[in-house]
Amino acid sequence: MTASKKKQSASALLLANIGELLTLHAPGKGQGPRRAHELNDVGIIEDAAVLCDGGKILAAGKQREVLRHPARKKLKSVEEIDCQQKVVLPGFVDSHTHLVFAAPRLVDFDKRIAGATYEEIAEAGGGIRSSVEALRKAPAKILAQRALATLQEMAAQGTCTVEAKSGYGLSVEAEIKSLEAIQQAAKAWPGTVVATLLGAHVVPKEFQNKPERYLREVCEKMIPLASKRKLAAFVDIFYERGAFNLEACEQVFAAATQHGLGVRAHAGQFSSAELWPLLRFHPASFDHMDCINGEDIPQLARRDTVVTLLPGSNYFLGLEKFPPARTLIDGGVPVALATDYNPGTSPTSNMQFVLSLACTHMKMTPAEAIAAATINGAHALRLAERKGSLEPGKDADLAVFEAEDYREIAYWVGGNRCSTTILNGTVSVRNA
Q1: Which one of 2.40.30.10, 2.30.40.10, 2.60.40.10, 3.40.50.720 gives the CATH number of domain 13-91+389-430?
Q2: Rounded Cα–Cα distance for residues 388 and 39 (Å)
Q3: How many helices (H) and strands (E) does the chain have?
């Protein structure tokens, strides 16, 4: 499943009087993700307009040119949105979230404040495993309702496309239930949801002394079932000390590939990880990557695998070190930004906050951060032919911000400057 089915047809829309339009269109740019200096080219057009119909963009550019576009004359009726000289850009693509869980991890929060590390909390029975029991007990309907509420919250903050992982069930039944909850929520939301099976998050306690058996559950039961029922587009794995090793990654990636699913991995969050053996599987992304080996940079620079950086996790864990964005960007590696929305290490749904962290703690420019949160996020989900930039033929995903200059989106901290969000051509949110 790569996208939710839309229950309502999108009407024709004209967004007029745009002060700054960030198209993210880069003339002459190839098909791959943005890297190096390309990240700073956000395609700014002033005094702009965007014309949409049927959930697609018909024209985006100077207002005088869009108003004269031949397609406008053929439309019977057009809803006009006066953007009042605000900033408009592609809706955010949040390419890494743990959307489905049953409860926040407040005990972990208390322990962390008292000085415990992530790994110490996990060894004491907290962390990911502490979310499992509650999720296994929760009905799919309740999980879907909570997921939908979060999707609506994300839309109100300018996000139009969301990757949603399972990963807190850690049994065949509970992981499939989580994916079903994602599917239910996606059908009720006008945006786009990409589901990912994360059965290989950690080894559950009932398999603690037999991790190989649990890996077989993932590869021989979860992955085939998720593929057969079209519940997921990708398979993910937590490749980290205390979770799964390289050999396990190769097994999971091989099973996913055999069943026609894409692959991605949490990697290098707390310790460096050997990546090159996994590149033969053409992973869509490696996520976190706080601890990167210098020898991997040239390998990644030659490929379209996106490194997705998740500074919200570093912030919430109280870490001094943040993802090495400048090293990666200067080395030619394509990077994306995402919230890592989850109950334990990054309980935020706000991509604007992530942009601010990227600029202040990772020294990305506001333009780089926006490109990483839009077009490169789309590449990380292999949806760049439809998402991430405002070009004719692409999906009409747009966010309007209360700002005169696009840099304000990353400048203001912790609030919400988004005034209107359009998801697949449907005006979904109009904030006061």
Answers
A1: 2.30.40.10
A2: 13
A3: 17, 16
Domain with CATH 2.30.40.10 in the chain: 13-91+389-430
| Token pair in block for residue 44 | 């700014």
Given a cut of 50, whether residue 5 has pLDDT beyond it is no
Q: Give ranges for CATH 3.20.20.140 in the chain.
A: 92-380
CA 315 to chain centre: 18
Distance separating alpha carbons of residues 178 and 62, to the nearest angstrom: 45
What is the fold of 92-380? TIM Barrel (3.20.20)
> Taking the complete model, does pTM exceed 0.90, yes or no?
yes
Main-chain phi, psi angles of 3, to 5 degrees: -155, 145
Contact 97, 429 (CB under 8 A): no
pLDDT, tens digit (0-9, with 9 covering 90-100), for 371-412: 999 999 999 999 999 999 999 999 999 999 999 999 999 999
Q: Given this model, what pLDDT does residue 325 score?
A: 98
97 contacts: CB under 8 Å, gap ≥ 6: 162, 163, 164, 165, 338, 339, 340, 341, 342
DSSP states of 99-149 as a string?
A: ---SS--HHHHHHHHTT--HHHHHHTT-THHHHHHHHHHS-HHHHHHHHHH
Model pLDDT for residues 18-28, shown as the tens digit of each residue: 999 999 998 77
